[in-house]
Design goal:
153 residues; alpha+beta; Pnp Oxidase, Chain A; 42% strand; elongated
Length: 153
C-alpha cells in the first residue's frame, strides 16, 4: 500500500478552519546565517496571523527582510488522522494605534510571563495543508529475530 495515496491535500478554506482550532504553532525565521524556530501562541485575525512577544531574536528575525513560516499541527482521535498547516509570508509590526486597539482583544495568551508588548502580524502569501492517517506503531516494530540477523557478530 502506498501511504502517499492516503495524504489529503487540504484546500485553503480547510487550512484556515484548522488554524482557528488551536492557538500554538512554531514560527520559523531566518536569523543572521541560519534558520531558527520558536514556539508561540497566535490568533487568526481577518486572513492574517497575529502573535505577541517581547523584543528579542524571534521578533528581530520575524521583522527582517526574510519571509517567515508558521507551522501548526493537530490530531483528531475520532478519525486517527493528523493534520499539518504551513503559512508562509511576511511579518510586520503592528504599530498604528487603531491597529493595536483592534489587536488587544485577540485571544493572545503567551505561555511565558513577562512584558510582551510587541504585536506582530503575518500576512500569508501561501498556505498549504495536509491530512493523513497516523500509522499503527506496530508497523515500525522489527522482530527480534530480524534484529539479530542484521547485527554484526
Amino acid at each position: 500500500m502506498d501511504s502517499n495515496q492516503d495524504v489529503e491535500e487540504l484546500p485553503i478554506n480547510a487550512c484556515w478552519a484548522l488554524l482557528r482550532t488551536t492557538t500554538v504553532g512554531r514560527l520559523a525565521v531566518w536569523v543572521e546565517d541560519h534558520p531558527d524556530i520558536f514556539p508561540l501562541n497566535y490568533a487568526v485575525d481577518h486572513g492574517t496571523l497575529v502573535f505577541r512577544s517581547r523584543e528579542g531574536t524571534k521578533v528581530f528575525g520575524a521583522l527582517s527582510d526574510a519571509p517567515v513560516a508558521l507551522e501548526v499541527d493537530g490530531y483528531d482521535p475520532s478519525t486517527s488522522k493528523a493534520w499539518s498547516v504551513v503559512a508562509k509570508g511576511r511579518a510586520g509590526a503592528i504599530s498604528q494605534v487603531h491597529d493595536l486597539m483592534d489587536t488587544v482583544d485577540l485571544p493572545l495568551f503567551p505561555w511565558q510571563g513577562g512584558e510582551k508588548n510587541r504585536f506582530i502580524r503575518i500576512q500569508p502569501d501561501l498556505i498549504t495543508g495536509r491530512r493523513f492517517p497516523v500509522a499503527d506503531p506496530d508497523i515500525w516494530r522489527t522482530p527480534l529475530s530480524e534484529v539479530r540477523r542484521a547485527s554484526p557478530e
